Amino acid sequence: MDALSDVLKSVRLEGAVYLNAEFTAPWSIRGECNVPGVRAKLADAEHVVFFHFLLEGRCEARLVDGTQVFDVGPGDLILIPQNDNHLLASDIRLAPIPTSPMIAPGTPPDADFIQLRHGGGGEATRFVCGYLAVSRSVCRPLLDALPRMVCIPIGDGPASAMLRELLQVGVRESSELRPGAESMLAKLSEFMFVEALRRYAETLPPQGKGWLAGVRDPQIGKALGLLHGEPARAWTVDELAREVALSRSALAERFAALVGEPPIQYLHRWRLALAAQALRTGREAIVRVAERSGYESEAAFSRAFKREFGSPPAAWRKAGARS
Fold this sequence. Notes:
Elements: H1 3-9, E1 15-24, E2 28-31, H2 36-41, E3 47-56, E4 59-63, E5 70-72, E6 76-80, E7 86-89, E8 113-119, E9 124-134, H3 136-145, E10 150-153, H4 158-176, H5 181-202, H6 211-216, H7 218-229, H8 237-243, H9 248-259, H10 263-281, H11 286-292, H12 298-309, H13 313-322
Parallel strand pairs: 1-8
Antiparallel strand pairs: 1-9, 2-7, 3-6, 3-9, 4-5, 4-7, 6-10
Helix pairs in contact: 1-7, 4-5, 8-9, 10-11, 10-13
């Protein structure tokens, strides 16, 4: 399995809130996690990713610091991987207003589905928007490789139609609150998120750098796939170099240039990410998690884990249980 598929396979959305938004020009809103229903539903999320899929009309999108401005049209997906506050507007020069007054009366504070209506009565713009809670520990290589705002042109073809239908199913499931809706929403959201990331990876220039560029490089991508495929194996740079038909020095240099760190350091961080996920979602003893992560003692594992995540394994597990 390639590294991108492996990380995407590990994506487990821990919650999702959908918004069906319709704005009429002139309008300007601030996208943030402070929407009452979102704040209540995803209060304990480790990390939140925003998305906006434009169904009809046009708008401008940018981060609040004025960077990464996009002109967004039908079939475009805006992804906000790092939880940044951002603006959406018919005219980005307009002062944004809070979203709370736009929420339909009677919406429960912990709703999975929120309707927004706002504007001056001009040209209509319609979105399906979402807030997705993800495990940052496992998704960190991917999230860190993405810009703070991504515009993915899905377009008007079959891919756009499929994604549009998935999002509309998500809207229906959110609004009707039928039995099993929460599980259905999680699966739909995972599929949508993965599909968006795959499409973004396909648009990257061949000379780019970062984790996704490493995944796309034939030899470094294979090396990443091997590390992800057998994380418990006692890999050495020499073994890895033989597997991908590069010299030791060439592998080390190219891997660090693309991924940003040496192969074995990357492996250690990936093992710790898997350990963090295991501690949050399972009941396996910490000493067993340490052994599977390649550590000979629980004490050494605890020190490395605390350096990476800021708290020892036991505290990390308790925090996950509370949330």
